[in-house]
Amino acid sequence: MRPRTCVLLAIAAALAVTACAGPAADRARLSYAVYAEYARDANKLMKNGLNRRVFNKVESQAGPDITLNADGSITLQPGTYHLTGTSTVTMQTTYAPPVPKHDNTYPGYSMVYPVAVENAGRATIEQAIAIGTPNTALDLAPSVFDIVYTAPAKIDIAVGHQSGDDLHNEVYLSVYEVQGQKSDYHAVARISIVRLN
């Protein structure tokens, strides 16, 4: 066999190996997760200020870069991620539309933030990774967030929701039972995370 033919065959073989390994390597690095919070056990009143969403169901998971922790927070390895999600709060615990007792619809919003600043007051908002769209508890409309975020180092994040500081015990973070009917299928928050690189 001529030297030139050997070189061409070696190049062709290397290209074939690269072509075959490329997609497989990409698949091996693929990381994504979808986590949800479902109402459990009883209706849960919202507290004043920031309330952490406690994700309690893994709906989809692949790869090593995204981890759901026991406290509902999420650990991200260094990298760039697309995070989307929703969070709802409500005044509705009956089949009839809720009637506010204090002339307040309880407007608020969700946010994604580093767990390290969860109890930092105003600094939590200032250091938030994403702020969700406004919503009101009266209307049960979700607060939605959608962000591309780069984690320069390993980080624990959480999703929270706030509807102010005077909730009069009529705003619920989750509703498990409506007029005696219990349900394990009330998803009150969800986050989807896909690693981009």
Give descriptors for this structure.
globular; 197 residues; 7-stranded antiparallel β-sheet; Jelly Rolls; 40% strand; 5-stranded antiparallel β-sheet
In short:
This protein is of the alpha+beta class and 197 residues long. It is built from two helices and 16 strands. About 10% of the residues have low confidence.
What does this protein look like?
The protein is an alpha+beta fold and 197 residues long. It has two domains: 1-30; 31-195, Jelly Rolls (Sandwich). 16% of the residues lie in helices and 40% in strands. The protein has helices at 3-29, 122-126; strands at residues 32-38, 44-45, 50-52, 57-62, 66-68, 74-76, 79-87, 107-114, 130-131, 135-136, 143-151, 155-162, 172-174, 177-178, 181-182, 187-195. The strands form four sheets. Strands 3, 5, 6, 8, 9, 10 and 12 form a seven-stranded antiparallel beta sheet that branches. It has a five-stranded antiparallel beta sheet with strand order 4-1-16-7-11, with no helix packed on it. The protein starts with a helix and ends with a strand.
Q: What is the count of structural domains?
A: 2
CATH fold annotation of the largest domain? Jelly Rolls
Q: What's the total helix number? A: 2
The string of secondary-structure elements, in order, is: HEEEEEEEEHEEEEEEEE
Give the C-level CATH assignment of the largest domain.
Mainly Beta
Mean pLDDT, rounded to whole units? 89
Fraction in beta strands: 35-45%
Which value, in Å, is the CA radius of gyration? Answer: 23 Å
Q: Could you describe the largest sheet, including whether it forms a barrel?
A: 7 strands, antiparallel
Outline? globular
E-strand count: 16
Helix/sheet category? alpha+beta
Give the N-terminus to C-terminus distance in angstroms: 43 Å
In terms of per-residue confidence, which ranges show pLDDT below 50 for 5 or more consecutive residues? 4-22
Binned, the helix content reads 10-25%
- CATH architecture assignment name of the largest domain: Sandwich
